[in-house]
Write a structure and sequence with these properties.
heterodimer; A: about 350 residues; alpha/beta; 8-stranded parallel β-barrel; B: about 425 residues; TIM Barrel; two-stranded antiparallel sheet; 11 strands; FMN (chain A); LLM class flavin-dependent oxidoreductase (chain A); oxidoreductase (chain A)
């Protein structure tokens, strides 16, 4: 793996407060941006009890006007959304943020989600739905050419018919005519993230994602996962370099190992419990082993403490490589630009 | 200090470059407005400066009439837009007092997902989000969601009523165990109760179903009536339905739309109107008339009286917009005949004061009109529809609002924290399905 390391920060529900305090999220976003993280990711499952699960896109939209550079990645379910609505939301967030939106797609439905939406979690059609969902999303994002909007005050021509495209999708799960009523996103296509932590998830990720989130207990495990992913990518006609691979790392960091252990309590593995130096060591060894293009860090405890303790060490070790002059998330991730099917 | 007079409620509609279809062509207007979050931030700042109750964002999930080239949507600015719910989430982060009311459809959303998103924004905004509920009648939207045409009115409105009830149960805390005609939902939102409890709901529409839904479930009924008489009739009709739902007259606020061209003198106001009419494409004017059941007037000379006009009924079903009543079209056709209006003059009437209150005048004249509606049973407030942005919104806040304040009709400072406070709505009473 060559190129700069990608660094993401998972901002889950803070188990501490028991309330919803937007100021804390805003502060976390600003800290993450100052620490040169490439993106924030908002997961969608309940972190702890009492669960505080803010809706990811609403929260990221609010954070988009408080930040300038950090990517904003929402988790969303293909089982309980409609692709027209989700594409509209993501394209809007991309415009609002100047090209910093991303989406982590979950193809299945958790038990709780199924109950909330009246779905059957064992429905085998959910996988197929997920793939068709992505096809609709990409197609809708191609509704408008980049130059579809002359907005010519002199002639009165706002947009050009020949640069607008109906999707006319008719599949087993969705029928969508289009066009999307949002101009082409600055990134062309909002980058799709996906986890590869089960057989079904791996297949979806290998078919549809550009950033794959993996998590493994150790390097050997990680190598095996990486090989499996490469093989599955090949099955779907994609080169190994078509995706970026990030290792998800839950970390409880303390000034000493004891302090970290006390903080971690009964945190489930896999996860790293230790000092900032321990974290930096782990990240270095994974990087040097070539199994990851970067990391998605998930603080086991409070976010401010984590950043305050960990970032100086990570910066000292050259593990945080903030880049000036990169304006979109796609550029930060080192992904190729997304050409329209009509280009 | 408690105001001595009943106060007007005022919303400012900010979603696009303006309500006039050719606003984007004015030199001082940004043609990017609808896609630009900065435009929306400016609009919210204007509303806060004027101590207005809320900003409003219209919405529909399609390019309307996109397949009909005669309607000239490619020459208009309002069809391409940002998701207004997310835009309001962004506004929540950088505004302090003003309410935020995006539009969203009950037909194309799921109540669990929507309740969760809105509750989250209520937290971010500390209690300032509301919702303009629409049931969606346009065919282009239907085709984005797998339908060949919009759902029938009875089903749409039944779904909307169930949607609101489920959302309110979820906002109250749940857990919910709902199995209704349209939705099966179990569980809770996994969020603390939104600061406002029940988020304020606006709805609009002239049909009986729409009026019943407003009376049953809304806090504000938005409308479009071009005359005092029509507005009084609508006001009485909607409010007359409240009793059967156990609600009093004060539980629902009627807020008709108003579009103003404002000048310090009448001539200055007229000049602003003439300037925007001068940049309007003829095709846009003809397309808008077509949508309102006029025949196709393409090719007619602009400055000669139009021929005797008859209503088109052939595509009434597909072209009809909710709330666009044929009586307004017939009235305009009568007027065209009686006054021998030219095509250009027909455009002038159609673009200001055709389907909602339109005024070209001084702040005093506008305030007089608003006060008359407010005190004679036509309105409890107004939805201000700036014809072009931000100039017409600035004019309203800088010129008309001080006049309303002088008359004691509008606040001079925010006293409440939430949108429910601004609207003086009770927290948990007078609502169908609410716990006492």
């Amino acid at each position: 793996m060559s190129g700069r390391m990608i660094l993401g920060l998972s901002v889950g529900g803070d188990p501490a407060a028991g309330g919803f305090d937007f100021d804390r999220y805003a502060a976390a976003a600003r800290l993450a941006e100052a620490a040169a993280f490439d993106f924030l990711l908002l997961p969608d499952q309940a972190a702890a009890q009492p669960a505080i699960r803010p809706e990811p896109l609403a929260l990221l939209a609010a954070l988009s006007v408080l930040t300038r550079q950090v990517g904003l990645v929402a988790t969303a379910s293909t089982a309980s959304s409609h692709p027209f609505n989700l594409t509209r939301s993501l394209a809007s967030l991309d415009h609002m943020s100047g090209g910093r939106a991303g989406v982590a797609l979950v193809p299945g439905a958790s038990t709780a989600e199924a109950r909330s939406f009246g779905l059957d979690p064992a429905d085998t059609g959910l996988q197929e739905r997920a793939e068709e969902f992505v096809a609709v999303m990409q197609g809708l994002q191609d509704s408008w050419d980049d130059d579809a909007f002359p907005r010519n005050k002199a002639t009165g021509q706002f947009w050009l018919r020949e640069r607008m495209h109906y999707l006319k999708h008719e599949g087993r799960h969705f029928k969508v005519r289009g066009p999307l009523d949002v101009a082409r996103p600055p990134q062309g296509h909002v980058p799709i993230f996906a986890a590869a932590d089960s057989e079904a998830a791996l297949d979806f990720a290998a078919r549809c994602a550009e950033v794959i989130l993996g998590g493994a207990a150790d390097l050997e495990n990680a190598r095996a996962q990486g090989a499996a992913l490469t093989a599955r990518l090949a099955d779907h006609g994609r080169a190994p370099q078509a995706v970026k691979r990030l290792t998800r790392l839950v970390a409880c960091i303390g000034r000493s190992r004891q302090e970290a252990e006390d903080q971690a309590g009964a945190m489930p593995p896999p996860g790293l419990v230790g000092t900032p130096a321990d974290l930096a060591d782990a990240m270095e060894s994974w990087r040097d082993a070539g199994v990851a293009d970067g990391f998605l860090l998930q603080p086991g405890g409070g976010l401010e403490e984590f950043l305050g303790l960990a970032m100086p060490e990570l910066q000292r070790r050259g593990l945080v490589q903030g880049e000036r002059g990169m304006s979109t998330l796609r550029q930060r991730l080192g992904l190729p630009s997304a050409a329209s099917r009509f280009a | 200090m408690t105001p001595s007079r009943r106060q007007m409620k005022l919303g400012l509609s900010i979603a696009s470059a303006g309500y006039h279809y050719s606003a984007w062509r004015l030199p001082e207007v940004s043609a990017l407005s609808g896609m630009d979050i900065e435009h929306h931030l400016r609009g919210a700042a204007i509303a806060e400066r004027g101590k207005m109750d809320f900003v409003f964002m219209a919405d529909w999930s399609s390019i309307m009439n996109v397949t009909d080239e005669r309607i000239a949507r490619d020459k208009e600015h309002a069809q391409v837009k940002l998701d207004p719910v997310l835009a309001c989430a962004a506004l929540a982060a950088v505004t302090r007092d003003v309410g935020l009311v995006p539009t969203a459809s009950t037909t194309y959303n799921h109540p669990y997902a929507f309740a969760r998103r809105m509750a989250s924004i209520d937290h971010v905004s500390r209690g300032r989000i509301g919702w303009n509920m629409v049931t969606s009648t346009n065919i282009d939207e239907a085709m984005n969601f797998g339908l060949d045409g919009p759902i029938d009115s009875d089903t749409r409105h039944a779904r909307a009523a169930e949607f609101v009830d489920v959302m309110r149960d979820l906002w109250q805390g749940g857990p919910v165990d709902h199995a209704g005609g349209q939705f099966r939902i179990q569980g809770s939102l996994d969020l603390p109760r939104p600061p406002q409890g029940f988020l304020p709901i606006i709805t609009a529409g002239a049909s009986v179903n729409a009026q019943e839904l407003a009376a049953r479930s809304a806090d504000i009924c938005y409308g479009g009536q071009p005359s005092l008489e029509m507005a009084r009739r609508y006001y009485a009709s909607v409010k007359g339905r409240l009793g059967k739902y156990g609600r009093s007259e004060d539980d629902l606020l009627m807020m008709p739309g108003i579009m103003c061209f404002i000048g310090r003198t009448q001539q200055e106001a007229q000049d602003k109107f003439d300037a925007i009419q001068a940049v309007m494409n003829v095709e846009v004017g003809i397309g808008q008339l077509l949508l309102n059941h006029f025949p196709d007037l393409t090719g007619l000379p602009l400055d000669e009286p139009v021929p005797d006009l008859r209503m088109r009924t052939d595509n009434l079903g597909s072209a009809r917009l909710a709330g666009r009543e044929p009586e307004m079209t017939l009235a305009l056709m009568d007027r065209a005949r009686e006054e021998k209006l030219t095509l250009r003059q027909l455009f002038d009437v159609a673009m200001c004061g055709f389907w909602s209150l339109g005024v070209i005048g001084t702040p005093e004249r506008i305030a007089d009109m608003m006060e008359e509606w407010f005190t004679t049973g036509a309105a409890d407030g107004f939805m201000v529809q700036p014809p072009y942005m931000p100039g017409a919104a600035d004019d309203f806040v800088d010129l008309v609002i001080p006049e309303l304040q002088r008359r004691g009709l509008h606040r001079t400072a925010y006293t409440g924290r939430t949108l429910r406070d601004h609207l003086e709505l009770p927290r948990l009473s007078g609502l169908a399905g609410a716990a006492a």
